[in-house]
Structures are given as C-alpha cells and as structure tokens.
Write a structure and sequence with these properties.
The protein contains 17 helices and no strands. With 331 residues, it is mainly α. The longest helix has 38 residues. The radius of gyration is 25 Å and the shape is globular.
C-alpha cells in the first residue's frame, strides 16, 4: 500500500511536466498571440492602433521571445507560486481565479451532493425492484435526463420560469445583493438561487449515475456468492449493503479523478447561459483570446486536481474492494 502511494506520487512529477509543455504549446498553437486578437477586436470597431504602442506592449509582455523562453519563464513562476499576470484583465492570475473560485466550488459541491444523494439510492432501488413501475419510471426519467443537454435544459427552465411564473433564473443573486458585501442576508439569497444551477448541472449526471449503479448492482445480484448467501439465510439488507452495493459503487469511486477538476471548471456553456460567474467562462475567454498565462495556469490547476483525484480514487478503490487490494499486494 505504502509503495503504491510512493510510486503514484513519483509519477505525478513527470506527468505534470508533460502536461505543462503540451498545454502551453496548444495555447500558443493558433496563429498570432494575444495582441493579434486584441488588435483585430479594435479594428472591427473602427479604431486605429498605433504601431509604436503595439511594439511597446510586445516588449512589455515579452511576446517576441522564443516559445521555449516564454515557457521556462512561466513554469519557473508557477514553481515559485507566481502564476503571472493576465494580459486581458491586467490583473494577477491568482486574483482572477480566486474571485470566482468560491462560487464555483459552492455550486459544484452542491451539485455533487445532489447527484450522489439522488442517484445512488434510486439506482439501488431500481436494481432491487427490477421491472417494477418504479424502475420503469426512473428509467424513463434517466433517458430524458441523458437526452437533454445541460444548456438546453437551462434555456427551457429560463423560458418556463419567466413565461409561467414570472421568475428570473439567471445569475446567483438578486439585484440588490449583486455588488453588496457578504452578509447573512446575501448568503441566504445565494441559497435561494443555488437550486437552479444545481438542478441544471446535476440532471444529466444523476441520470447517468442511476444507470451505472443499477447495471452494476444487477450484475452483482446475479452472481453465485449472492445466491449462496441468500440460501444460508443472510438478511437481505445486510447482504445487499455489505457486498453487492460496495462492488457496484466501484465505478462511482473511480470517477473521483474527474470530480475535482469539475469542481473548479464547472460547466462552461451552462454557466454562460445562466450568467453564473464561475471559472469556466473565464477559462473559455482566456483560451479564445490566447491569454496564455491565465489559460495555462488554469489548465495546470485542473491537471493537478485530476492527478490528485485519480490518486484518491485509486486509494478508495483499494479500501473498498479487497480484490484490488490483493492484486496490488501481489505485484
């Protein structure tokens, strides 16, 4: 167990190094740079750009340096805790990210709680009561949830709420709390608006997880050890929770590697539709404008969270499933 942890930690360093190189190259891959995008945007509005100003900005941001020089400057800053400065916002990258991080984490954690608390019990119920009316009903809801994209569901919810109930579902705060400092009243207002993005973001994930839990649990319930335990008189609830459910939850645990970056990135398109100030739209805008320090730092942060999440999921799988534990011990 200890050796496995050490091996995984040692693999993190070269993995992140390769990811940093690839992400920096991909951000720089489109023709031009941030100033090219900025000048094009100004020219579309009819404004003229002074050539001397452009040259001064290139020297200021060191955009004429070779790409390997820019990379080592950026990666060296990351190792010192300096994420650089955003070209577009003219602010430190850390400040821009942390401005939106609280709301992003709040929405994503609430969504994950909603997804797991809803999907796991329903998946277990559907498997235990296969082909019942409840199973058919949840199956129908699951297929509908999988078929409707999040952004389309958000648009439908916005239209229905406005046309029928006269309610606005955009944003996370009422107008009077939009720019107000944090207080108990503002936090309560946030909770009143939080259910909307939680339902929109969590519906498809809940539907997918229900199908996964149901299918895996049905496979386990058909195995001989379950039949043998039933024949020996093991209580149904104890048998169900101690063995089949634990094994059926393995795919849920293995997805934790993707959960941590999802908490930070959020759903980009849905956040744009609902007007939610999360880190997702910030990353999209940075990539579109080739704001390399902001985009690169966010990609690296997501990569670190993915690697850490994968390590956590592997450890949880070893704890949850004895078969995986014995396989690692025999290596």
């Amino acid at each position: 167990m200890f050796n496995l942890i050490i091996k995984r930690i040692l693999w993190i360093i070269p993995t992140l190094l390769v990811i940093s190189m690839l992400s920096f190259l991909l951000i720089q891959l489109p023709p031009g740079d941030y100033l090219t995008s900025y000048i094009s945007a100004l020219e579309e509005t009819g404004e003229t750009v002074d050539a001397e100003l452009v040259e001064a900005l290139r020297k200021r941001y060191s955009l004429d340096d070779p790409i390997y020089v820019q990379y080592w400057r950026w990666i060296g800053g990351l190792l010192r805790g300096n994420f650089g400065r955003s070209f577009e916002w003219n602010k430190p990258v850390t400040e821009l990210i942390f401005e939106r991080l609280f709301l992003t984490v709040t929405i994503s954690i609430a969504t994950l709680i909603f997804v797991y608390a809803t999907a796991i019990p329903i998946g277990i119920y559907s498997a235990v009561n296969q082909y019942s009316w409840g199973d058919y009903s949840f199956t129908l809801i699951g297929f509908v949830g999988l078929a409707i994209p999040n952004f389309l569901f958000a648009l439908i919810l916005m239209f229905v709420s406005d046309a029928i109930f006269g309610l606005s579902v955009g944003g996370l705060f009422s107008p009077e709390y939009q720019n107000a400092s944090w207080s108990l009243a503002k936090f309560i207002d946030l909770l009143n608006h939080l259910w909307i993005p939680v339902i929109v973001l969590g519906t498809s994930s809940t539907a997918s997880l229900i199908r996964v839990v149901r299918g895996n649990l049905l496979d386990e319930l058909r195995k001989l050890y379950v039949v043998t335990a039933q024949a020996k008189g093991v209580p149904k609830i104890r048998l169900l929770l101690k063995y089949p459910v634990r094994v059926a939850l393995n795919p849920v645990v293995s997805n934790i590697g993707w959960v941590l970056p999802q908490i930070v990135s959020g759903s980009i398109i849905t956040s744009v539709v609902l007007g939610i100030p999360t880190t997702g739209p910030l990353l999209l805008r940075a990539l579109m404008n080739q704001d390399m320090y902001l985009a690169g730092s966010m990609v690296m942060m997501l990569s670190v969270l993915t690697v850490i999440g994968t390590l956590i999921s592997d450890l949880l799988l070893i704890w949850l499933d004895p078969r995986i534990r014995y396989e690692n011990q025999s290596r």
